[in-house]
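User: Can you fold this complex?
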Amino acid sequence: MKKPLILVVNDDGYAAPGLEAMVSIAKPLGEVVVVVPDRTRSGMGHAITMGEPLRLNHYKTEDGVDYYKTNGTPVDCVKLGEKVVLRNRKIDLLLSGINHGSNSSVSLIYSGTMAAAIEASFDNIPAIGLSLQDYSRNADFTASVHYGRIIVEKVLEKGLPPYTCLNVNIPKSPLEEIKGIRITRQCRATWHEDLEERTDPYGMKYYWLTGYLETFEEDETTCEGALRRHYVSVQPVQHDMTAHQHISSLKYLEL
Amino acid sequence: MKKPLILVVNDDGYAAPGLEAMVSIAKPLGEVVVVVPDRTRSGMGHAITMGEPLRLNHYKTEDGVDYYKTNGTPVDCVKLGEKVVLRNRKIDLLLSGINHGSNSSVSLIYSGTMAAAIEASFDNIPAIGLSLQDYSRNADFTASVHYGRIIVEKVLEKGLPPYTCLNVNIPKSPLEEIKGIRITRQCRATWHEDLEERTDPYGMKYYWLTGYLETFEEDETTCEGALRRHYVSVQPVQHDMTAHQHISSLKYLEL
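Assistant: Here's the predicted assembly.
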């Protein structure tokens, strides 16, 4: 049987330990090609590069995996991977991550990792974004690789519903404390921004964007609820953003 | 009665004619504050600025409107507007645009204009993204201002459902040819990317990202369907991206 073709992308850049962890999941399962940013591109959402040209630099690792680094965004990585690197070959699976940091709740909308998976789902490529609830560069990816492999193998075997990708979040817990895997829905939440004001050496003000996420639904059926109970959260994601439930109540706007 | 507080943002930057058109809608209706990028930031999706500090420069126009220019993204404009410029005052309405170019279908996910409106909806601020189906800098905003004002006035009077914003698209048609306003849903579509390869003067390859949108559902209930029939499309937008319809079929992934 032909080995599945797996495109690996991320938003933390080519040097992130989480990328190495993802490649270690993918390599035994298929033909792996990696297209990733040449630097950290966190919080890029679904941004694409329109005003400047894209670059693509190829290198091969010692164990024979083809890597391509680009100045583009995570979503650009998917487009470059499909069109330029793989020249419209059929991609069997797109893997994005493993992200250093959780992408549960509305974080998925800010996330370059998940945007790349969503981009692939536009083209009906089965796609999985994988994120670990630990921002640290030295995060322990043991549990992520363990559960990531289980999920990836099942998805390669059974596929995904059309135009759907998965937002997989792994709790920051040792492998033996993780209780299992739950299919979840996105919980409501809000970011509380803090814009820290400073003054530069020239007397001009500038601001650092920081903040924290407050979640409002924490039952076991939600992403955050599952993570807090030490379960891996697997949220199916689609890209119709219509508020269907409000269409009839807004008919008063019609003319 | 106190005048409503209206925050205006965009993604085409401070000098875009579409911004002037939006301010002309907002100014007679409330207290207007403008926070916009210092350059074109199209296709930025829900990107935020994490790796570098944000700047904010204030100026006042001749007719007394406060403008703030920032190096940040459209979503950063909303965060800076809420926290730094308006210091958590209650915002009655966020207006984003008027965008030079349509944001129907999946374009809304790439769009900085719509990301700014969605960002406001996270904080339950009524928000409207307004886009004209004409990319040209010299686009005629007459119909956009006419219909934009009608919609903005009604939303100021009646509000919007909680955590919901509107994606309003105006057809590229003279005012007298536009038939009215339709509440729509997002149609399925895909971008066909073209990555044009060139060689720079140093012999290195680079790529320009271009493409076109193919839409698959064009009945009158969809955004594209309404536009093609010369109606203004008003799509209510929410930010739960869960594929609820696929939760049960994915239970086989649970452990």
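DSSP finds six helices and eleven strands in chain B. Residues 146 and 170 of chain B are 10 Å apart (CA to CA).
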